[in-house]
Structure formats: structure tokens, C-alpha cells
Amino acid sequence: MTSLAELKLFTPSVLNKLKKLGLEDVFSLAMHLPIRYIDETIVTPIRDIEMGVLSQIEAEVIRAEIVYKPKKMLIVQVKDTSGSLQLRFLHFYPSQMKMFESGNRIRILGEARHNLFAFEMIHPQCKLTREGDELPEALTPIYSLVAGVGQKTVKDAIDKLFHHFDLKNYLKDLFSPSVYEKLRLPNLYESIKSIHHPKDFKEVASHEAFSSMSYKRIIFDEFLAQQLSLRSNYLIRRALTATPLKATNKLTNIFMGHLEFDLTHAQKKVIQEIKNDLEKNYPMQRLLQGDVGSGKTVVATIAALQVIENGSQVAFMAPTEILAEQHYRKLYKWLTPLNIKVAWLTGSQSKKNRETSLYMTQSGEAHIVVGTHALFQEHVIFKKLGLSIIDEQHRFGVEQRLALRKKGELNKVIEPHQLMMSATPIPRTLSMSYFADLDVSVIDELPKGREAIVTKLFSEDRRDEILKRVHEVCHAGAQVYWVCPLIEESEVLQLQTAEETYLNMQSHFKNLKVGLVHGRMKSSEKQKVMSDFVKGDIQLLVATTVIEVGVDVPNATLMVIENAERMGLSQLHQLRGRVGRGSLKSTCILLFQKKLSELARQRLKVIFENTDGFIIAQEDLNIRGPGEFLGVRQSGVPMLRIANLNRDFKLLEEAKTIADQLLEDYPEASHLHLKRWLSHANERVKV
């Protein structure tokens, strides 16, 4: 990458200003594309100006004065042959007064409006001009800026690249023309030139809609860089060595014979995919996704049994202690009859229990080790780690997942297999873009006998009706979750709200057993409360959003979520999935404040109308964008800056189709393309 400092085209002052925008090399400056365009090619007479429309006028200054009422401001009167206009500046410098000396001729760009006393422009752009000064011949690009960097600095810098540097050669296409001819895409230099310097308004309109062939070329190249990056990582991992773990099915058959339910066709299909992966001599990297309640844990357990049958260990990791504890309890119940030892490792357990678990892990006595982030710690040593199972994988950063992978390296040669699970369904566009380095399995059907959850919307003023409903449900022998509002500003406030709600519920329902669970409780306290709820000793559980993932209580048939409008779609869907775990008809009541923002109204409408997690996920992606949806900013995958997954899906498909072939046929050009597009991105292999 050629740095801007190497070019000697810019002063140190300009380089520092460009650096503030992250523009330090030729490619990043060329790719700092306009956000819009303005027309400075014509001058409009004052009398023909339209209200609220950006207009350029040329006028003579009549007078300028500083007034102090109602507050200090600069008022300038100007005129042309057709009329007069007032300019008002609320912020100005004494040096500006020189521009507005009487008789000066200035070119003014702004939007006019009427106030009570005058026809005026507030804070227009102004520059001194002389009779006969030529107007620009092309539309003027407007760029995004940061404090201390003006439009002129950026525009002049980009113009210098086009006029005083061989940009055409620097941006030459790296692949054979046939790669782009199929899609009728122009070359990169012409595309960038067209966007910075459009010929006419028709071209501007297509640029601003991202539908021009120039933009399509840039979008395709960006998708291609991401796909090449991920697919090359995929191939790198294919070249690593893992222990092939052949399926003997001894333990698997016994386990499946003890199950109280039949596996769905989707589960069986996914089990076969994982089984085939584990038998390979390179590490499995599979993402298992499925909606809440689709039976991912059973699938993961069958994968674990195949590993244990081959004399290797399994690490089973979850993001929260509540979820990790649930996995531990479930695995302990399922696998102890098979003489399989399950160890439990978390940050909050007693020193004695932790030392016992660490010994069982290092000696190999523990076949499966279940835990939270504690599994990453250096002193956790596995005798022979064959498989890492990571639940809610997007909640862990790339460094954490890498640390767990390294636990399985034997003499830095053998890698463990890895199975990542997500109960947040991932839309196809996102999966293709951000998980192209993984094999993806989807459980797309729910177990038979599951009743659909009914979702109801209640405004805050109907609270009494809801309390009555809670009373009826509990007295009929079922159980209820009452989820307290999400207060992002303060965990302390959220805790306080939960405790207040708990006391209010105890006071209101004197004949019901009410429990409380939240993230600040000790692990043993949380486990006791959840255990009592599972056994039915607690009828009404007041909880914060810590119960979002994993808690499984088939007898819970009603959930009330307070201030549901504050929560994201995926979180609401996850919470709702805590009821409807058995065969009983279940209801989720979303309690909301009456003054709803448009975004909150949109979210509640989606969750009310849909139960399919994939549809909800797609809507969530549309609302929040990929960065927020999956936390991919921390994942090590380059973020897309220009391409849009929904708008540009066809180009994503094309890039995905061609990436593997380019890596094989043009390895050097592929490397240069990655270097060009991802030089500032985080290029660590996503593990």
C-alpha cells in the first residue's frame, strides 16, 4: 500500500487532517466516496429562489453588522439585480467580517426561508468572487468529515490524486477481465472516477441509490475481498490436522434408546453432517443453528458421545453461569447412567470444587467439562481435548475462542474439532457473508407436540388484568416468569427494579410462592432458585434478562415481559422461547409504555406477528444491521463499509460462487486483492 506521505503531494498539516479521517494511503483516500452532491454549476437570481431548496446566488454586500439581541449574531444584507436577501450567522469569526465589507461580491450557497421580518439564509457557505469568475463545470461532491477537517481539504486531496498521481495504473484490475465481463462491470479506476466526478444528474441519481454500475463494481469487489478472506481461512484450517474420530455408535445407540422423545428429521440430518465431519483428519468448524427449543443440545450431546467413544474429551462452554449450569445438569442426568463423568468449572465455585474439576480435566477422568469463560484460563489443562462445543458462540470474542482451541493442541500439531451453536437464527444473507469460513447446519423444525406460543400486547395501564391472569395460571397448577425491564444505563438500577418487583409480587400474591433470580446472585443461590422453579416449589419467578437463554421449565406457560419496547427483537424472541417448552398451551405478554417510538412500534409489531425465528432474525437484521445483530465487530471478520446485504444480495451470491475458484486459479492476485481491500481490517482467522 502506498502511503500518502510517500507521494510528497501533501503538507504535514494536510496529512494530519486526513489521518483524522483514517485516510493514510492512496487506496483509502480514493475510496473516501462522496455522501452526496451539490450543484454549483448555475447561479439563481434571488427572486427565483425556492424555499427550502439548496440554491446558489451571486450578490453584492450592502452592509454587515453584529447584533446582540436576542443573542450575539452577524447579520449581512446582500442584493443582486433581482432582489435582496439577509444572511444570518449565529457562529462567526472576526476575520469573516472582512469578506462581508460593503461592495464585496460573494457567491452564496444555502437554503432560504422566511422569518417574521426577512427573507434569509442561515449559515450559508460563502466565498469572495469577482465579475466573470467561472462556475464549476461538474457537480460538487460532498464528503463525510470530522472536527477540524473541511470539505476543501478532502476535495483538494482527492483532486490531487486524480491529477498528479498515476491512479489509473495504481487501481488497475488484478483479475482477468472475464471475472467482471459476465456481470458487465466497469474497471475499478473508471468506477471510482465516476463516483467522485459524475457527469450529470442521471449518473448522480444512480450513484446515490447505489445502483450505478460503478457502485456495483465497488460493492462486488468488497464482497469478493470478504469471501476470499473467509474462504482462505477455511482452506487454511482444512490443511490443519485433527484426530479422526470414527463413530462406533455404542454409546450413541444406548443414549438414543433412553430418550423420551423422537428426533426430528432435521436433527437426524444435522447429526449425520457432524458425524461425517468428526471422522475427517482435519478439524471440524461447524456452526449449528436452530430456533429456541429445536433440540440443539441433544445433537451436541450425540456429537460428544462420538468423541468420548474414541477416548477424547469434550469442552462444553456457555456464556452465562445459568446456561452453563443447565447444560451441566442436563448432561449429568443424561450421561451418568452411561458411566460418563461430567465435570463443572466456573469462576464462582469454591476452591475445593474447582481443584477437583481441574484434576478430573487434566487426568482425563472427566469425559465432558462444562463451564463458562473459566475454561479459557491457562491453568485449565485437558488430557486430550477432541471437541469444543461453544453455545451462543457470538457472545465470545475471537481471542476467547482461539484460547479454547489452543487447549487441544498436542505438540502444536493436533487441533480439536469445534462445534458452535446459536439459538439466534441467522438470516441467509448474513450467514453467507459472515460465516463463509464455516460449515453451517440448520435445525429448521421444532419437535412434535409443541404448541405455538401465543403473543399478546398489553399497555401499562392494563397491569391489573395481567396480575389477575398470573393468579389464574398459578392456581391452575402452571408457573409464570415475570421479566423485569432492561435498564442499559445501570446494572444497579436493573437489580433495584427486580428486587422492588419481587417485593411487590410477594405483597400482591400472598398465597403464591414467589422467587427472584438475577445476574448478581451467587451461583449457588441462582442454582437453588432455578432448581426450586424447575421442581415447582416456586410458582412465580421474577427475573432479569439472565434467563434469556437456556432455562428449560416445561410447566411454565406464561411469561410477562415488562417494558418490552426497550428490548431488541432477538432478545424478545429468546425470552419468549422460555415458555412453550412442553405440550401445554403457552402465552407471552409484552407489557409496553404508551409513548412508543416508531422503532419500538416496529419491533413489537414484528414479534407479535411472527413466531418463526428466521423471519424475526431477518427483520432484526433490517432494523439493526449486521454489526449489532451478531456482534461481528468483535468476531475478527472484516465489516462491510459500502455493500448492503439485503440490497446487494445478488452480488454477494456472485462473489461467493467465484471465490474458491479465484483462490485456486489466481492465488497471487487474490492475495493482492485482499491486501488492497483489507489492509486496515482485522484479518485474524476467525476461530
TrEMBL record:
Main function: Plays a critical role in recombination and DNA repair. Helps process Holliday junction intermediates to mature products by catalyzing branch migration. Has replication fork regression activity, unwinds stalled or blocked replication forks to make a HJ that can be resolved. Has a DNA unwinding activity characteristic of a DNA helicase with 3'-5' polarity.
Identification of the protein by name: ATP-dependent DNA helicase RecG
GO BP: any one term: DNA repair
Pfam families: DEAD, Helicase_C, RecG_dom3_C, RecG_wedge
CDD domains linked to this entry: DEXHc_RecG (cd17992), RecG_wedge_OBF (cd04488)
Residue ranges annotated for the Helicase C-terminal domain, each copy included: 466-622
MF (Gene Ontology): 3'-5' DNA helicase activity; ATP binding; DNA binding; hydrolase activity
The EC number(s) this enzyme carries: 5.6.2.4
Top EC class, one word: isomerase
Listed SUPFAM superfamilies: Nucleic acid-binding proteins, P-loop containing nucleoside triphosphate hydrolases
Gene3D superfamilies: Nucleic acid-binding proteins, P-loop containing nucleotide triphosphate hydrolases
Species annotation: Candidatus Methylopumilus rimovensis
Family matches, as InterPro entries: ATP-dep_DNA_helicase_RecG, DEAD/DEAH_box_helicase_dom, Helicase_ATP-bd, Helicase_C-like, NA-bd_OB-fold, P-loop_NTPase, RecG/Mfd, RecG_dom3_C
Record-stated family: Belongs to the helicase family. RecG subfamily.
Swiss-Prot/TrEMBL catalytic activity: ATP + H2O = ADP + phosphate + H(+); Couples ATP hydrolysis with the unwinding of duplex DNA by translocating in the 3'-5' direction
Domain Helicase ATP-binding: 277-443
PANTHER family per the UniProt record, alphabetical: ATP-DEPENDENT DNA HELICASE HOMOLOG RECG, CHLOROPLASTIC
Keywords noted in UniProt: ATP-binding, DNA damage, DNA recombination, DNA repair, DNA-binding, Helicase, Hydrolase, Isomerase, Nucleotide-binding
